[in-house]
Design goal:
Blueprint lengths: L3 E7 L5 H12 L4 E3 L8 E8 L6 H5 L3 E9 L1 E3 L8 E4 L6 H9 L3 E5 L8 E2 L2 E2 H6 L9 E14 L2 E8 L5 H11 L4 E11 L2 E2 L17 H4 L4 E4 L2 H8 L12 E6 L5 E8 L2 E7 L1
Parallel strand pairs: 3-12, 14-15
Antiparallel strand pairs: 1-3, 2-3, 4-11, 4-12, 5-6, 7-10, 8-9, 10-11, 12-13, 15-16, 16-17
């Protein structure tokens, strides 16, 4: 069975779930899942987990991401992006310098209010379904971190930039909040995911271009981690979920191999010993 990850260069207009189904049907894979939703309007890197790769999904879902974004000031929409209905239009009075300063104020840690049109659930129901029904629901702000905002280009009403952020960050909310800070409203008019973890959109392919040869093996996907070989006498205990003492000085996640050099798991080493977290 083929296991690993596929890097898709998603086109605008397609939902992430539609991409999953298209790839699953194309190759008749048993299991396929995406590792971080891209809104239909957005383009760029969408990582798919194939078969046993889905067991490692949480690792990549937690990873940082980088986007190329474009915000249009002066118009606010109900979805906070270009696909929504216009709900506010105002004259832009800020200077380029003020717009840049306010954008950079998002750097660091903060609490972000998610868009009302999002897949986040309230009482088991996605927020966008409440919004479509005209029902107002509250979702508590979430902690996010903006690690970098670079390559800023301002040609009002548009501001383009690259942004590196933590899991759970909504760039649509950045656009909305920037518009509020500048007292003119704003929405996200373009978005492209450039990176996720160690993966790059430049290495991704369109759905009609990919083949099974493009699948990144599990071992290769985590080649940035250190590795350890387990002796035969400790292998069974490790596989059964017990902690084993390997005398390792390195802490954190490591690739685990059996005595024959076959990749078998990702394990975490701590002061208590080495224990698997994700078995191949």
């Amino acid at each position: 069975m083929t296991n690993g990850f596929l890097l898709i260069d998603k086109e605008s207009g397609a939902t992430s779930s539609r991409v999953v189904q298209a790839v699953k049907k194309k190759f008749q894979f048993k299991k396929v899942g995406h590792l971080g939703t891209l809104d239909p309007m957005a383009t760029g890197l969408l990582i798919l987990a194939i078969n046993r790769g889905t067991k490692f999904s949480s690792l990549l879902l937690e990873s940082h991401k980088t986007y190329a974004a474009e915000v249009t000031l002066g118009i606010q929409t109900d979805t906070d992006d270009a696909e929504g209905e216009h709900i506010l239009s105002k004259v832009i009075t800020c200077s380029d310098e003020e717009a840049c300063k306010k954008l950079l104020s998002f750097l660091g840690s903060s609490m972000q209010q998610p868009p009302i049109y999002s897949a986040l659930k309230v009482q088991g129901k996605p927020m966008y379904k409440y919004a479509r029904e005209g029902v107002k629901v509250e979702k508590a702000p979430r902690a996010i971190e903006i690690k970098a905002i670079e390559n800023i280009s301002i040609n009002l009403p548009k501001i383009s930039f690259e942004i590196s952020c933590s899991k759970g960050t909504y760039i649509r909310s950045i656009a909305r909040d920037l518009g509020e800070l500048l007292d003119c409203g704003g929405h996200l008019s373009a978005l492209k995911r450039l990176t996720q973890q160690e993966f790059l959109v430049n290495d991704a392919k369109k759905i009609d271009e990919i083949t099974e040869l493009d699948i990144i093996p599990l071992e290769q996907a985590f080649s940035h981690l250190g590795s350890v070989n387990l002796p035969e006498e400790k292998l069974k205990k490790f596989i059964n979920g017990s902690t084993v003492d390997l005398g390792l000085s390195e802490s954190g996640l490591l690739r685990a191999y059996n005595a024959a050099g076959v990749f078998i798991a990702l394990g975490r080493n701590s002061s208590e010993g080495f224990k698997h977290e994700y078995l191949v």
